[in-house]
Succinate dehydrogenase / fumarate reductase iron-sulfur subunit
Amino acid sequence: MNLTLKIWRQQGPQDKGKMVDYKVSDISEHMSFLEMMDVLNEQLINKGEEPVAFDHDCREGICGMCSMYINGEAHGPDRGVTTCQLHMRMFKDGDTITIEPFRAKAFPVIKDLVVDRSSFDRIQHAGGFISVNTSGNTQDANAILIDKHDADTAMDAATCIGCGACVASCKNSSAMLFVGAKVSQYALLPQGQVEAVDRVKNMVAQMDLEGFGNCTNTGACEVECPKGISLENIARMNREFLSANIKG
Ligand code: SF4
Ligand code: FES
């Protein structure tokens, strides 16, 4: 395949940035999107030009690093996959592909396609943990009976990889699907009850402090989430938040 790429180039946080056109040739439909980007960068390096900066790590849908907005969609046109799992067979020979960073006030651009998502880390630090007995006589986790439905729902919430596609897809740059998943994975389990009240209050407060917008039930986050995190998690977070504020 031969492709035209329109890529956001931005030297640093203070640079205005602009779209730049590139041509790439001999792209196999079996390549992943990031492998196609590697080919482009090799071409740029060989020509003495600066390669396009983009985030990646695991390249297998686990780490959540590969934040790219491709043809107007977070992680591109496929469903249930991250950019590193997106294959070039989703595109046609001669296509023009637009590639931008995830855009949100709380995700400032560092360079080109790389954004700073440490706001998510700070939300996690605010409450995304549990207290456990590490004295050596810790109770075996399997000794605590947990309703199968609750265990499955908590595990579904825990599959959130913190990629930020929900924020990038939301017209309000809301992080409520992410925070809802992180609150839910503990709220559904007995181990999460010790800090439950403080957790939801602190995580929501940090989310607001970081400058994320509010949820207006559009649902774009759920559609674009590569892990299929359900909007039910936002509803659960809202219930937890209300209940925590009533408890004081
Ligand atoms: S909820 Fe989905 S889209 Fe949002 S950070 Fe988690 S995995 Fe990514
Ligand atoms: S590089 Fe890890 S999820 Fe894409």
User: Anything to note?
Assistant: The pocket of FE2/S2 (inorganic) cluster (ligand 2) is lined by residues 56-59, 61-66, 82-84 (CB under 6 Å). Strands lie at 3-9, 18-24, 69-70, 73-74, 96-100, 109-111, 114-115. DSSP finds eight helices and seven strands in the chain.
